Amino acid sequence: MVWQNVAASSFATMVGWSTGCNHCDPGSRDLSTALDGSIALCSSPFDGMRLGANANPVLGTTVQWELTGVPVGAGRGGGLMRSLTQAVPPVDLTAAGMPGCFAHVANPVATLLPAPASSTQVAESIPNNPALIGVALVGQAVAFEPTRSPLGLVATNAMVLTLGM
User: Fold this and answer.
1) pLDDT per residue as tens digits for the range 7-53
2) Residue 21 DSSP class
3) 136-144 and 2-7 beta bridge pairing
4) How far is Cα 42 from Cα 155, in angstroms, rounded to an integer?
5) Above 60 in pLDDT, residue 58?
6) How far apart are CA 137 and CA 160, in angstroms?
7) What is the CATH number of the domain that holds 48?
8) Pairing verdict, β 102-106 and 85-92
9) Alpha carbon 108 to chain centroid distance?
């Protein structure tokens, strides 16, 4: 059973990054003082909405997808997308009118959330079938927020739930 957070809804903070290949660690740096100008990694950062799960994805149980921090204007709608396929690399949604957002779910099945509360749960029943051990279920949510993007939607992080016993 593995829980994996794929990406945050915005990347206002960079914890660490390396190109690999035995590059040495230069130590801690405050990029706001080390560089000439400011850095904006997202055109309109939105850190509030998050997708999680309430339990390990065990065969024969029900897991609740937990959507928290839904924007106030989202009472007009949203959705939870789920798939067995993760988009690698993630699809940049700038051209679709969601700058700074990425789709991590490929060929999703959507559950519409007509008027999501600030916290919303969606039940996911996991069949009791041993052939499903190790299968990854990828989820990502969107909500209506007209002030954050031209399309009027914001996206959450993605979650990968690997089914187990």
Assistant:
1) 444 444 444 444 443 344 556 666 555 555 444 334 444 557 899 99
2) T
3) unpaired
4) 13
5) yes
6) 6
7) 2.60.40.10
8) antiparallel
9) 14
